[in-house]
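Q: Now give one record:
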Amino acid sequence: MATQPSNRSLEFDFATTTTMHGLSRIANSQSKALTTAWAVGTLLCIGVCAWQISLRFVDFFEFKVNTEILIVHNNSLEFPAVTICNFNRYRSSELDEDTEALLPLFAGSMYGSDGNATLEYLANYVNISDLRLILDRLHSKGFTIETFTRDTGFSLNRSMIHCYFNGQTCSEQNFTHVFTIYGNCYTFNGPSQGEHLTQTMAGFGNGLNLVIDVDQYTYTESISGHLEAGIKFLTHSKHEPPLMASQGYAVQPGTKAFASISQIQSFNLPKPWGDCDSDTRLDYYDSYTMSGCTLERLSKVIKNICLCRPIGFPGNETVCDIFSMLRCVDPLIGIAMYILIFTIRS
């Protein structure tokens, strides 16, 4: 006997035989109330499931990261660079009659100070025209701010009484000269020192030990310069230029200071997990650092406006003379530094 064809659709057959219980309950319910209840419940569950899945996608594309802290006990650590400066920029024992007359100009030339106000103040006590004549006479002899600062400023060869690192004698040959806001400064274990020094034991006698004569009787700083006396030092990475104006520790004369240090390394993630560009390179430094980036960008701003480069800043441009420092660089650098730091942080 032939079978009668079924009037049920494929969709109804699927709904009644599927393992998705909501659909089968809706299709097999004998009353409209049960059908409605199962339909509402099934749609609600599907909505919650879709919502949870969308949250997972949103969470994934936010590229969140987890912070993992790992404490590693090493037998030895790389010793940092140590930069040392004297608060006195120019020694009176190295000045002659002409250079001593220029001291009011150099004392007023400080990064971030009001150079025009300094010139107005000096105009009440000295003849600016006479100072220009002195500068012209010195320039005819090859005078520059760099050579003047190097020859008359803080000299480690003269001031360092003894130097020990890990119990071994060191000398000025282990230091690299660098210009900063304090004039001549010297960096131990700097980038030009090819050897990577390591520290195996903590405590006094196992690091860098220095005894320095600050030569306070040769100080020439005035009220418009550095009022402090003593040494300022900064520990930093050997691949990072020192920012002595905003970092470091001061040691007054006649005291002994101990400095314990710890190393913190931070690695910023590239996109899409962060905003760091791992391909970013600096023009005058081998490694990318915040200090190096700050000095380079600040130097470019000053070059574009003042058409010169302040002493101690990276670049190949002509070093600013004293009047360019007072009239252009000093009033500009404070504002430029604030804008630059705000830009970098944002």
